[in-house]
Amino acid sequence: MRFKVGETTIYLFCLIYCVIFFWFLSALESFQIEERRILDLIFGFFLGSVCVNLISGLMGGIFTILSPRRVFALFLLAVFLESLLGLFWILFNSRVYEKVQFCREAVFIYGSREDETEYTRFNSMINRFFQISRSVEYQAGMDAILEAIQTTSVVFLGDIPVEIRNPLIKYCMSKGIACYSIPKISDIYIQNASVMQLHDKLLLRYPKLEITGAQKAVKRLMDILVSLLMLALFSPVMAVIAIAVKLDDAGPVFYFQDRVTQGGRPFRMYKFRSMKTDAEKDGIRMTVRQDARVTRVGRVIRNIHFDELPQLVNVLKGEMSLVGPRPERMEYIRAYAGRIPEFPERLRVRGGLTGYAQVYGRYNTEPEDKIKYDLYYIYNYSLRMDVKILLLTIRILFQKENTEGVDENDWVNPVGSAADHEAEDDESERSSAKRDDSKKE
Questions:
Q1: H or E stretch including 367?
Q2: Neighbours of 218 (CB within 10 A)
Q3: Which residue of 76, 107, 154, 279 is 20 to 30 Å from 333, comparing CA positions?
Q4: Helix (H, G, I), strand (E, B), or coil: what is residue 153?
Q5: Cα angle vertex 406, ends 387, 253, to 5°?
Q6: How many whole angstroms separate alpha carbon 164 and alpha carbon 144?
Q7: H helices of 128-161, where?
Q8: Residue 162, helix vs strand vs coil
Q9: CA-based angle 127:368:435, to the nearest 5?
Q10: Which residues have C-beta within 8 Å of that of residue 69, sequence separation ≥ 6?
C-alpha cells in the first residue's frame, strides 16, 4: 500500500532515520576519535550513510508514491552530503583532540620480550592517546622507574610482571598520573566480574566462560539466514572467481584443510585456491610478504579476503559461525597451549569466518594477543557485537596490513617442523620466540 507523504509522516520518518543512522555510526565506531585512524572514521561514516539510506530508500520505494528514479537520486544526494558533513566533522574533532591529548608525553615501561624501538615507532604511527618520550626496561628496578615517571603525566606499562605492574598502577592512581597497560589474560577474566557482598565483605564473582543456550540459538539462526543471503548475493562473484582460478593455471578451484572447531571437533574448511599447485613442493610453510607462490588471481582475492567465501558453506553446515575465533589446526593449538595454557579455551565456541581478532588485530598478530581478543569476545558476547564485527569486517577488506604475510626472516614454526605449516593459511601466527631470538642476536 502506497500513500502520499504528509507532515506527520515526514517527522516520523526523520526520527526513525536519525535513530538508525546513529546506531550504524556507533556500531562502526565513527565517534571514536581518540581510538581510530582518520581513514577508519571516514569509512565508518560513509558506510553508515550507505546502510541507513539503503533502508530508507527501500521504505520510500515501498510505502510512498515516489518514483524509483527519485528515490535513487535522493539516496545518492543523502550519501554525498552526509559523507561530506562527516568528513568535516571528523577532521575538525581530530584536530581539536590532537591539540588537547596528542601532545601528552608518556614514559614506556617495557618488558624483556618487547622491542622498545619498534614499539615507539609503531606507537608514533597509530596512537592517539599519547607520545612515548622515554622508555625504561622494568629490570632497571623500581627506583629507576619511579624516578623516570616523576615528571610525566602518562605512564604506559608494557608486558611486565604483575609484581612490578600492580605497584606501579597503584602509584600512578595515587599521584593522579594517567596509566595505560597491556592486559594479562587474567585481566580479561577480572574486567567482566560482578560485584557482590558477603556479609560485610566485598566479593567479586567471575562469570563462566561460555555463551548461554538462548544466545547460541539466536547466533545459529543469524548464521543460517545471513550465510544464505550472502551466498545468494555473492554467487555470481564466486562463479567468476572459480572460472578465473581455473583459467589462471588450470589447477583445482578449491583448497581444503582440516581444522578444529567448538570442543575440538575436526572439520574440513573450504577456500578458493590462491597459490600455485606446487606451492608445497619444498615443504609446507607460512605465507611471506611478496610470496612467489601466490598466483595472479590469488593475490587479488587474498587482498580482499574473497578466497574465504566458500566458508559460507561451512557456516551453513554448522561447522563454523559467521563470527568467532578463527579455526586452527589441532597441531597449532597443542603447540600454543604449551606456552599459553588458556589457548584451548577459544574452542568453547564455533570457529568464525571473521572475528574480534581479525577486526582489531592483523595478519601477524601474536598468538598471545589473539587469545586475549578471542577471550574478550566470548566473555562479552552479544548479538550486537556480532553485527558490529560483521560491519567492521567490511572495513578491513580495504586494509592491506590485514592480508600481508610475515617477513621471511622472521618466520618461526610454532610446532617445530616446517611440514606442519599450511601454505594457504590466512590466519597463521608468528611465535613470539622470534622476539627472544632477535634480542639474543
A1: helix 367-379
A2: 15
A3: 279
A4: coil
A5: 65
A6: 12
A7: 142-149
A8: helix
A9: 75
A10: none
Establish how many alpha carbons lie within 13 A of residue 432's alpha carbon, considering only the half-sphere containing its beta carbon: 14
**Could you give the CA distance from residue 331 to residue 344 in angstroms, rounded to a whole number?**
12
SS3 readout for 199-261: CCEEEEECCCCCCCHHHHHHHHHHHHHHHHHHHHHHHHHHHHHHHHHHHHHCCCCEEEEEEEC
Burial degree of 217 (CB within 10 A; 0-12, 13-18, 19+)? exposed
CA-CA distances (angstroms) from residue 110 to 99, 105, 159, 165, 286? 27, 16, 6, 10, 29
pLDDT tens sequence for the chain (441 residues): 455 556 777 788 888 899 999 999 998 888 888 777 788 889 889 999 999 999 888 877 776 677 888 888 989 999 999 999 999 999 998 888 777 665 678 899 999 888 888 877 777 666 667 888 889 999 999 999 999 998 888 999 999 999 999 999 999 999 999 999 989 888 888 887 888 888 888 898 887 777 888 899 999 999 999 999 999 999 999 999 999 999 988 889 998 888 999 989 999 999 999 887 766 666 556 566 667 778 888 888 888 889 999 999 999 999 999 999 999 888 888 888 888 888 888 999 999 999 999 888 876 678 888 899 999 999 889 999 999 999 899 888 766 655 555 444 444 455 543 333 333 343 333 333 444 444 444
**Measured distance CA(268)–CA(284) in Å, rounded:** 18
Place of cell 590485514: 402
For residue 369, what are the CA distances in angstroms to 32, 46, 372?
Answer: 22, 30, 5
- What does the DSSP assignment read for 274-313? -B-TTTTTT-----BTT-TTB-HHHHHHHHTTGGGTTHHH
State the DSSP code for 351.
Answer: -
Structure-block grid coordinates of residue 105: 608525553
Element (H, E) at 323: strand 321-323
d(CA 38, CA 174): 34
For residue 134, which phi and psi values (nearest 5 degrees)?
-155, 145
Please tell me the distance from the alpha carbon of residue 216 to that of residue 381, in angstroms, as a whole number: 10
Return the amino acid letter for 356.
Y
Strand order in the sheet with 131-137: 131-137, 105-110, 154-157, 178-181
CA nearest to 63, candidates 110, 6, 120: 6
Residues 183 and 16: their CA atoms lie apart, in Å, by 40
- Is residue 235 within 8 Å of 224, Cβ to Cβ? no
Contact yes or no for 357/324 (Cβ under 8 A): no
